[in-house]
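Title: Prediction job returns without error message
Component: structure pipeline
Severity: low
Priority: P3
Assignee: unassigned

Description:
Job completed but the reporter wants confirmation the result is attached to the right record. Sequence as submitted:
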Amino acid sequence: MLVAFQDVLESAGFNVITAQNGKVALEKLDAIKPDLILSDISMPVMDGYELFEAVRQQPGGAVIPFIFLTARGTREDIFAGKSLGADDYITKPVTTRELLSAVKARIQRSDELMLAQLKAAYKDSLFVLANAIETRDSYTHAHMRRLNAYATMLAQELDWEREQIEDLEFGAILHDIGKIYVPETVLQKEGKLDDAEMADMRKHPEVGAHMIKDIPYLASATPMVLYHHERWDGDGYPEGLAGEEIPLGARVLAVADAFDAMTSNRPYRDALSPDVAFREILSCSGAQFDPEIVEALKVCWEAGRVHEILDQNNGHK
């Protein structure tokens, strides 16, 4: 059976390492970390249950998918195997199709879980990087959290796919990362910026995009970082793009960013009321902002979703 299963799996393109019993398998695990373990239960020296427990106690062993493949198919046996935490329990006899389907499904699920964990780790790391600005601009940390909430709200109203929203979240986290190179005197200035100071401030989208442009995983966020200060009428910066020339994600961030900026205390002015800020956004539809995005904001406003975010973040200006 060992040879038969090996032939089936290798014919399907898998690299298979075999062991005659649990003890030998455990010894081989010192040198390799397989994508999946397929094990019988009734084996000499160390049975499948003992092997399972030993694997789970090893560093990294808890994340390796583990499938029992055995002739022990009573309800009690299946319950015992699954209660240990095994990913699957297959009883013999098993067809080639059933075996390959189970193996592929578990490896795919493991890959999806690992990718989700990796994305979460990336996001946490990027928050740490972006929060480095907080020591220089106290507005930024809370702003990123609220901006992310407003942008996600708008994307959901626009029926974006989950992957698009994930990209938008990275854009929201990183959109002002280029401010790390803006002088602190400019960030904290209470009065109006002069021409030179404004020129420094307007560099931050290009600086931020340059910082992340060579990171493949952040490629989709780069246009949002670069173009979130463009205007629908073409009077924005850094390139003066207009209308649909501006990437959609950047247009969403522009609306979310402007609303949060107006309703937050800044060094040069106090926060506006949400009602005043909302009316200002409406008045700039078709000039500063994409009318479709403004309409999505209007729907969210009337449904109370904007105020939900405001209430959740009350006290974090």
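Comment from assignee: result matches the submitted record. The radius of gyration is 27 Å.
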